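2024-03-11 09:14:02 DEBUG pipeline.ingest accepted 1 chain
2024-03-11 09:14:02 DEBUG pipeline.ingest length=153
2024-03-11 09:14:03 DEBUG pipeline.predict start
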Amino acid sequence: MASIVASALAIDQIVKFVMVEFVMQPPRIIEVTSFFDLVLVFNSGISFGMFSGQIGLYPVVFALVKTAIATALIVWGCMTNSRRERLALAVMAGGAAGNIVDRFRDGAVTDYLSLHAGAWAWPSFNLADVFVVTGAIALVACSMVKPRPKADI
């Protein structure tokens, strides 16, 4: 479990470093497709920038709350007997850890992915967010699959 959490964290931080230091210098919008852009946004709020005015005033407190949540995911993962559930929780915790590092270091999360279609636009996000959402979807899927009964030998 620890290696998956560490890998997700490392991948996220490396990609963010490359985006900030190389790809987005100077900061601009890079159109990749008609519905996908690379942008550079520093999100001081919760998901999708909500409450940025309030949370932006206390980034360390919010980072500590997120650290407690990530720790709970890791503890849960260590306690489960399901490898699939453990993997989903580890991916979620690694993604959360990536955003936690940003909050402690910068006071905001570094986002760089942007999806849009016509006038509709999804709020910017990053690879850590993808890890969290993917892990959450996998966790829900795990809860829907019944474990196979052990064969009597």
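2024-03-11 09:14:41 DEBUG pipeline.report Strands lie at 30-31, 36-43, 109-117, 120-121.
2024-03-11 09:14:41 DEBUG pipeline.predict end
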